[in-house]
Amino acid sequence: MAIAISKKPIVQVHALSKIYSGVGTPSTEALRNINLDVSKGEIVCIVGKSGCGKTTLLNIIAGILEPTSGSVSVFGEPPSKAHSKISYMPQGAKLLPYRNVLQNAAISLELQNTLTPETIRKLTELLDFLGLAEFTNYYPKELSGGMQQRVVLARTLAVDASLLLCDEPFISLDFNTRLELEDLLWQTVKTENKTCVFITHDIESAVALGDQIVVMSPRPGSIWCSIDMNAEIAQTSPVVRRRLPLFSQYFSEVWQALRESEDSNDKT
C-alpha cells in the first residue's frame, strides 16, 4: 500500500508550555517549550513515562485545555474552532449501559447533529468492518472488553473527522485484541487519508503504528527527540511491520531515547 503523506502540517504546536496552578497548592509545570508539526496522512505516536504530560498535550490539541504559553493551530485555526474536524478517543472510554452497540456508536453523530439515514448506513458498514455486524443489538454487559473497545473505535470513526486523537485507547486489552485494533486503526487512517496523534507508553505499539515517533522527557514534559520511519517500514501495516528486521532496530532506538531522557532528567 502506498502511503500518501503531505508535508504540509495540519497540526502545529509552537513553544507550548502548560503550568497547572491551584489555590493553596504548589504549581506543577506539566509541559515546557513543545514544538511539534503533524502532517496530513501521518500517524504520530507520542511515547513517554507516565506523568510526562502526554495527555495534557493531546487535550490542548483537542481544545479541551488552554496552554499557559505558546500556540496551537489545527487546520490553520485555534483548536476550539476546528472541533468539527477532530475526533477524540480518550483512555478508558466507556459505553452507556442502557444503549445497544448501534446506539452507542451513533452518539458522536447525535452530538454533531449529523444522524441521518445515510450516516446510519455508513455506521452500519463501519460496524461490519470492525466485526460487529452481528452484535448491533447487544448491550455493553453482553460484550467482551475487546468488543466494547471496537464499539468505542466505531464511535470515534463514525464522524467524518480528519484528525483522530487517541489517548492510549487499547491499553487495557489483551495482546491479540490490541494487535487487531491497531491494525484496524492503521488501515482506516491510511485508506481514508486521515491524520492521527496516538498517545502510548508502549514502545511496541508506537513502532508498529507510527510514521513518526515523538519521545517525551519526564515532567516537565518536553520533546527529547523525534524518530521518522523510513519508507520500507512506514508502508506496512502493524501486523506485517512487527515481522520486519527493522522493527527491532526502531524498538531499540526508541527504548534508548527514553532511557537517555530519563537519565538526563535525573541529573537535573
Question: Nutshell version of this structure?
Answer:
The chain has 268 residues and is an alpha/beta fold.
Structural summary, described in words:
This protein is α/β, with parallel strands linked by helices. It contains 10 helices and 9 strands. The chain is globular. The mean pLDDT is 89.
Q: Structural class per helix/strand content?
A: alpha/beta
Low-confidence stretches: none
Mean pLDDT across all amino acids = 89
Query: Measured on Cα atoms, how large is the radius of gyration?
Result: 19 Å
Total number of helices: 10
Cα end-to-end separation: 45 Å
Question: What composes the largest sheet?
Answer: 6 strands, mixed
Number of strands: 9
Looking at the structure, what is the overall shape?
A: globular
What string gives the helices and strands in order? EEEHEEHHHHEHEHEEHHH
Give the SSE map.
Blueprint: E1 9-22, E2 25-39, E3 43-47, H1 54-62, E4 69-74, E5 86-89, H2 101-105, H3 107-111, H4 117-129, H5 145-158, E6 163-167, H6 175-191, E7 195-200, H7 203-209, E8 212-216, E9 223-228, H8 231-234, H9 238-241, H10 245-267
Parallel strand pairs: 3-7, 3-8, 5-6, 6-7
Antiparallel strand pairs: 1-2, 1-4, 8-9
Helix pairs in contact: 4-5, 5-6, 7-10
